[in-house]
Design a protein that fits this description.
Blueprint: H1 3-14, H2 18-36, H3 41-47, H4 53-64, H5 68-74
């Protein structure tokens, strides 16, 4: 499959380019780890495919509007 075919299919199915869809999937998984585990952010970053936790934190913040630490604190079960 060519790159343009993949892009066309992803846009049709998800309304997003392949890279955007991959990031969306990573961020959804990261959100689940942040909310449902006590794993350190550095380990969550690794588990969702980021080599650098600072890059992960920046991506998470851009996606959700809060850093992983603040997101966890705000949504912590009481």
């Amino acid at each position: 499959m060519s790159r343009s075919q993949l892009t066309r299919i992803c846009l049709h199915l998800y309304g997003k380019a392949p890279g955007e869809r991959v990031k969306e999937i990573k961020m959804d998984r990261a959100r689940m780890y942040v909310l449902n585990t006590d794993l350190p952010i550095t380990l969550i970053a690794e588990r969702v495919g980021y080599e650098n936790s600072n890059t992960f934190s920046t991506a998470f913040t851009n996606f959700f509007g809060l850093s992983p630490h603040k997101f966890r604190a705000k949504h912590q079960r009481k």
